[in-house]
Design a protein that fits this description.
Blueprint: H1 13-25, H2 50-61, H3 69-77, H4 83-92, H5 102-110, H6 124-132, H7 136-151, H8 167-175, H9 180-184, H10 189-194, H11 200-210, H12 215-228, H13 231-245, H14 252-270, H15 274-285, H16 293-316, E1 329-333, H17 337-349, E2 353-357, E3 366-369, E4 377-379, E5 388-391, H18 396-417, H19 422-441, E6 456-457, H20 463-476, E7 486-493, H21 516-527, H22 529-534, E8 547-554, E9 559-563, H23 571-591, E10 623-627, E11 641-645, H24 655-662, H25 664-680, H26 682-685, E12 686-688, E13 693-696, E14 700-703, E15 713-714, E16 732-735, H27 739-748, H28 750-757, E17 762-767, E18 770-776, E19 780-783, H29 786-789
Parallel strand pairs: 1-2, 1-7, 3-5, 7-8, 10-11, 10-16, 12-15, 16-17
Antiparallel strand pairs: 3-4, 5-6, 8-9, 13-14, 17-18, 18-19
Length: 791
């Protein structure tokens, strides 16, 4: 991302630009609202442990990576954390600053004077504000945010400043004429901007000299400025993420750092008395990042909280159920934790039903263009690139009508927002909208949109490609034998309204879209005679009477929609009846945790534009289990576990195991850690109060009419108004497979291994449906006796 030209840089250029690169990589990406997915907010810190990351993020953002001491004391009082959990977590810690004994740690828990984390190290803007009484950080946030909202706009704004210009050049053109800083008292700022170096790299290098930053100090000093820009830095990190997926690069992050450094330079020169305080701050940035004894103690207590949940989970996983006869119905759901409740309910309806868990894109790397649109969306995990193109285009007349209608809606919206018409529109049209407002407020907003035409692979596939694709998917699903008479392929999505984070309720494995397209494409592929003819030579024989049917699980209403059902079989009516029964059971269970809900009102919340909690999403997620279904069938896991079907004995060469560890486990970790981060550090890694959200540029939200761009989950997604609903735990990954095979995969994928070695995830092996061993850092294992772990 950062280029190095020795002819324009000082001798220490390389170290400064390396520090800038490292600081940029420490920022997590934030995906736009149109297809948002969960992101691990600690993505840039997974190379260090929880306590060290806490020390780093305290320095650059004033946040800790754990709950407070009082929260752990409350968990101990409630019985969620036992003394044995604390003792085991303390024994497992290798931190030099760990408490000397269990008694010492418990004394820290009971101490009323436990220190809170220090504030973030001040920026020059912070020091200038303290010296002058002018809120310079707020002025920077406002002026920068105003420019960035237009620069990065994705179609919402009526006007954007130089949207095609180089980012840094565009800002200089804007800031060179913006008098806001000068009015606030920063005289000469416009001239300072105009005189700045003409590239972001030159500006960074000059500012590092001006601010007296050594190569060692620069990394956390730059990281501090990136965190100061909040969601805008995360959006720029997403731009780089997308570019690198396509084999390109993107310089937006470098531009943002240069912009923020130009402000620092100007304030340092303008405000007397700041230089000495800044020199002390720069020296602190040069000090090594080391966890304090308090931060280590909190990390140990977080480990104890994780172990408390692992005890309860081990008690639930009390052994595999005996295998049954051939099922009449197999229903493949996404591994999403919300599916666990419905799967359990469905299997309880009839003994001839079996469920399967697999990532909701069903292994198809699709780029899909919906009906009436020229814009294709990636329906696959954000870690991957699309390889197949599909479309739901209907007949030419229908597509044209949809395009015209869409243009009319956009034109009408722009008319309502335009300066010359907005007030008149409100006065004239307000009474007309009164009835609509009442209907929407009562949850009577209308029905869900009708399904699109069946998606088709653009250009088609050869018979060889069909068989190869189908065989790969069926093997990855551990669905190579024992097929039912009917196999449902159920994607998922959530019905919500008036919610800018709508795509967050959809399928993360489908890139923030619903799983409808993936399910329908796969069902058509597996029913295709050419596909079936080629499967036996690839080791799979499908029974002639097995029918694949696509559907969608609405996680807000727990209703199932089946697609393309004109199959000539009467069995689907029986299947629909089972789905209706299971939906009622699932709604009754979920209603108990939704404020103000009953089993009869759960579905109506989806259409209520005033409902801030239509569902809980993935709140509560705490475990990932990859094993045959008989290891978890009949076990009530409380809607807190990602359930991935996996039979290691059918996995020759452990290719599927490698796929699970490097894709679904990583995606699940992003989800788990986003909920964790939005719970323990909502002021930085959460998006705030959704009641006052305003959408900016189609990118993200701000609170109210100003402030920084916010990323992460709204507070209402993790909190019920009185207490946290999401219990902040790191994901416990449990896989039924040989230890040696798992260790071999981790050895080949150091970035995945780091998640386990540094404690961002926990890893266990299962044997016959019970916990067998715990992973320890360094590719080693600690045998576990299930009865002891669950005691």
């Amino acid at each position: 991302m950062f280029l190095k030209h020795s002819k324009i840089a000082p001798a220490r250029m390389s170290g400064i630009l390396d520090a800038a690169e490292a600081a940029a990589r420490a920022i997590p990406p934030a995906f736009p609202l149109e297809a948002t997915v969960a992101v691990n907010p600690f993505l840039g810190q997974t190379g260090e442990d929880l306590a060290t990351a806490s020390a780093r993020l305290t320095r650059v953002a004033g946040l800790r990576t754990t709950q407070g001491m009082a929260d752990y004391a409350a968990a101990i009082q409630a019985g969620k954390i036992a003394d044995d959990d604390i003792a085991e977590a303390l024994a497992a810690s290798t931190a030099p600053a760990r408490p000397a004994s269990l008694a010492a740690l418990k004394a820290m828990i009971d101490s009323p004077g436990a220190p809170e984390p220090a504030k973030a190290l001040p920026t020059v803007a912070d020091l200038a504000a303290e010296a002058t009484g002018t809120d310079w950080p707020s002025i920077i946030e406002k002026t920068f945010g105003l420019w960035a909202a237009g620069q990065f706009d994705r179609g919402q704004a009526l006007w954007s400043p130089n949207p095609t210009d180089d980012c840094f050049a565009a800002w200089r053109a804007w800031a060179g004429h913006d008098l806001t800083p000068e009015i606030a008292g920063l005289s000469g700022f416009c001239a300072h901007v105009i005189a700045a170096p003409d590239t972001a790299e030159r500006a960074i290098l000059r500012a590092a000299d001006t601010l007296g930053l050594t190569e060692v100090a620069a990394e956390t000093a730059f990281h501090r400025l990136y965190m100061d820009l909040g969601g805008w830095s995360q959006h720029a990190r997403w731009l780089l993420w997308q570019a690198e997926l396509e084999g390109r690069t993107d310089a937006t992050l470098a531009a943002l750092l240069a912009i923020r450094l130009i402000w620092e330079e100007a304030l340092l020169a303008h405000v007397p008395g700041v230089a000495e305080a800044w020199a002390k701050t720069a020296a602190t940035h040069a000090a090594p990042v080391e966890a304090s004894g308090h931060e280590v103690a909190l990390a140990i207590l977080q480990d104890a909280a994780d172990r408390g949940h692992q005890r309860r989970l081990a008690a639930a996983l009390d052994g595999a159920a005996p295998a049954g006869e051939r099922p009449f119905l197999q229903a493949a759901f996404c591994i999403d934790v919300r599916s666990e409740v419905f799967r359990r309910a469905l299997e309880g309806v009839d003994p001839s039903i079996e469920t399967i868990g697999f990532a909701g894109f069903f292994g198809l790397p699709l780029s899909h263009r919906p009906q009436g649109s020229d814009v294709a969306g990636a329906h696959l995990p954000v870690l991957l690139n699309p390889a197949l193109e599909t479309t739901s285009q209907g007949d030419a007349k229908t597509d044209e009508d949809m395009r015209i209608a869409a243009r009319a809606v956009r034109a009408w919206g722009r008319f309502r927002q335009a300066a010359v018409s907005s007030f008149a529109f409100v006065e004239a049209a307000g009474p007309v909208y009164a009835g609509k407002l009442v209907r929407d407020a009562l949850g009577l907003g209308g029905a869900m949109p009708a399904p699109s035409p069946a998606p088709q692979v653009t250009g088609g596939l050869s018979s060889e490609a069909k068989a190869d694709t189908a065989a790969a998917v069926l093997k990855a699903m551990s669905l190579t034998e024992g097929h039912g008479n009917i196999v449902l392929l159920l994607g998922h999505g959530g019905s919500v309204t008036n919610n800018p984070h709508e795509s967050a309720y959809h399928c993360g494995a489908c890139g923030g879209h619903t799983g409808e397209v993936s399910a329908r494409v796969l069902a058509a592929l597996l029913n295709d005679p050419e596909t079936r003819a080629g499967l036996p030579e690839r080791g799979i024989t499908l029974p002639e009477d097995t029918l694949f049917v696509a559907g969608l699980h609405d996680t807000t209403t727990d209703e199932i929609t089946l697609y393309d059902t004109d199959t000539g079989t009467a069995d689907l009516s029986k299947v629909s009846g089972w789905m209706t029964q299971a939906g009622r059971i699932a709604r009754a269970e979920r209603a108990q945790s939704l404020p103000g809900a009953s089993a009869d009102t759960v579905a109506a919340r989806a259409l209520n534009w005033a409902e801030v909690r239509p569902e809980w999403g993935l709140a509560g997620c705490a475990a990932f289990v990859a094993a045959p279904r008989n290891a978890t069938a009949g076990k009530d896991l409380g809607g807190r576990a990602f359930l991935h079907s996996y039979d290691w004995q059918a996995d020759a060469g452990f290719g599927t195991l490698e796929l699970i560890l490097t894709a679904p486990v990583v995606v699940a970790s992003w989800i788990s850690l986003q909920y964790y981060g939005s719970s323990v550090a909502p002021e930085v890694f959460g998006s705030g109060n959704k009641l006052i959200h305003n959408v900016v540029g189609g990118i993200g939200v701000i609170e109210g009419n100003g402030g920084g761009l916010r990323a992460g989950l709204p507070w209402q997604s993790v909190h019920d108004g009185a207490a946290l609903v999401h219990e902040p735990l790191r994901l416990s990954v449990m896989i039924e497979a040989p230890r040696e095979a798992i260790a071999d995969v981790l050895e080949r994928h150091p970035e995945v291994r780091a998640l386990f070695d540094n404690g961002w995830l926990h890893l266990f092996t299962l044997k016959n449906g019970q916990v067998d061993a715990r992973y320890r850092s360094g590719l080693s294992w600690e045998p576990q006796v299930t009865t002891d772990l669950a005691a």
